[in-house]
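Structure first, sequence second, as always.
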């Protein structure tokens, strides 16, 4: 096909389900984007407005846990389903989009405390249901195009990639001599991205002016603050929007491209032999691992090499309107350890040997946060239904353990299991006015062995039974999502 040829969206339709139709569309877009790195796509607007795309987008919005949260218009997904009906709502939305009358409303600001007890807050922007559906439709069309350009060192908010892959890559390169770490933090990344720089990167792949206008309209939609004041948005993409993570990845891919350019074919670090020659000559090698706006740069070299990369990265981020946080960005040696995505990664000697390995532990902050949640649910003055509390505790602990089960965590999980058990028992002793012999009578068998704590048929989940296993580094074997059937 010609470089800027349209996608022929008016071709005869083959009867198929909405998900299958959208999957086929995404697979084609990704294949064409991969085959031609310089191709700019036209006529994408008709794909955004396609009934199948809008239906899949609505299903994703309705299935999101934020579906019950209204935007500035006060409507939730339930209101739309009960008062209008999904198909009537989508037909009206399609008409407004096609006529060019669609205008996104300001996002509703909601401030939530940042984790860690720092007292700082994170500003979330909650779009209306209508805007969420349009953003989801845009994401369905744009994501397979830009995924063809994203580098494998990026893991955040990308299909079939997860935080554990980023940790495994750090573990892999740390084991192979990359011991100096630039632990970087971008200050207010989502609030500071320069709109002009971001739109220039979007235009590099998108030629359709109607799609570009939609993306820009969402960036400029404004914010309705908690004080009911309207504020214009001159920079940034609001956290909470469905399209925001993709736009942030598009902007930050400039950093990925800059730092991975020596690893590309023909580059100075393209082969293991070239990297060994560089080290033998006293020159550094480096590797970036990024998860959304959190990233580390692993360096095989000296501390001064990592410091020089810090200045280089600051120069790359400046045109994007971004800067590194002076307080949170640091250069550390892996033997001192550093925290990333809730894990503590450290190069240390194996007990009883003279061999050193890279270990992944659970960081202190997630443990404190889990204990705070458990304390809040098991206050000794609480009058909540024990069955409801056990259900909520089990949900929290299963989710937490599922994320951290790939760390060196057996001792930590055992300690936390004891902590939870004592918190629940102490609460129940006060709630039911039990004595210790009442506890033993209820929760020990005829041999005196303890039984699991339970209330009305719900057993307390024990973190101690979680199987701890090593997460295997997938490297270049992470599958291409667009090659899978019905991935939409």
């Amino acid at each position: 096909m010609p470089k800027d040829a349209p996608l022929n969206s008016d071709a005869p339709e083959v009867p198929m389900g909405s998900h299958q139709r959208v999957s086929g569309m995404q697979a084609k877009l990704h294949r064409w984007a991969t085959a031609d790195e310089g191709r700019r796509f036209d006529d994408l607007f008709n794909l955004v407005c396609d009934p199948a795309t809008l239906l899949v987008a609505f299903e994703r919005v309705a299935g999101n846990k934020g579906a019950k949260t209204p935007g500035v218009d006060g409507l939730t997904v339930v209101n739309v389903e009960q008062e209008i009906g999904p198909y009537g709502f989508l037909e009206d939305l399609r008409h407004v989009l096609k006529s060019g009358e669609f205008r996104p409303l300001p996002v509703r600001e909601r401030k939530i405390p940042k984790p860690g007890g720092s007292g700082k807050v994170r500003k979330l922007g909650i779009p209306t249901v209508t805007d969420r559906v349009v953003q989801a439709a845009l994401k369905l069309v744009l994501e397979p195009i830009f995924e063809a350009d994203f580098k494998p060192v990026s893991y955040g908010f990308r299909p079939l990639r997860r935080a554990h892959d980023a940790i495994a890559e750090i573990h892999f390169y740390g084991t192979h001599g990359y011991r100096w770490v630039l632990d970087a933090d971008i200050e207010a990344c989502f609030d500071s991205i320069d709109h002009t720089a971001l739109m220039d990167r979007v235009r590099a792949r998108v030629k359709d002016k109607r799609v570009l206008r939609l993306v820009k309209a969402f960036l400029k939609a404004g914010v309705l603050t908690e004080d009911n004041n309207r504020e214009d948005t001159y920079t940034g993409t609001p956290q909470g929007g469905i399209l925001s993570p993709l736009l942030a990845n598009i902007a930050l891919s400039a950093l990925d491209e800059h730092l991975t350019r020596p690893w590309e074919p023909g580059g100075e670090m393209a082969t293991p032999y070239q990297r060994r020659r560089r080290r033998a000559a006293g020159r550094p090698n480096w590797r970036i691992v990024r998860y959304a706006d959190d990233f580390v740069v692993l360096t095989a070299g000296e501390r001064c090499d990592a410091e020089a990369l810090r200045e280089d990265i600051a120069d790359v981020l400046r045109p994007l309107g971004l800067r590194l946080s002076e307080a949170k960005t640091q250069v550390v040696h892996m033997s001192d350890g550093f925290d990333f995505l809730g894990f503590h990664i450290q190069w240390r000697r194996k007990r009883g040997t003279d061999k050193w390995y890279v270990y992944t532990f659970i960081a202190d902050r997630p443990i404190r946060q889990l204990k705070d949640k458990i304390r809040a649910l098991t206050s000794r003055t609480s009058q909540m239904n024990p069955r409801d509390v056990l259900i909520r505790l089990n949900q929290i602990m299963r989710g937490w353990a599922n994320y951290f089960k790939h760390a060196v965590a057996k001792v930590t999980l055992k300690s936390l299991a004891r902590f939870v058990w004592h918190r629940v028992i102490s609460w129940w002793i006060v709630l039911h006015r039990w004595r210790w012999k009442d506890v033993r009578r209820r929760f020990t068998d005829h041999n005196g062995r303890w039984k699991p704590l339970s209330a009305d048929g719900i057993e307390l989940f024990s973190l101690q039974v979680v199987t701890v296993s090593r997460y295997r580094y997938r490297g270049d074997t992470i599958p291409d999502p667009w090659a899978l059937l019905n991935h939409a």
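Margin note: The longest helix spans residues 410-432.
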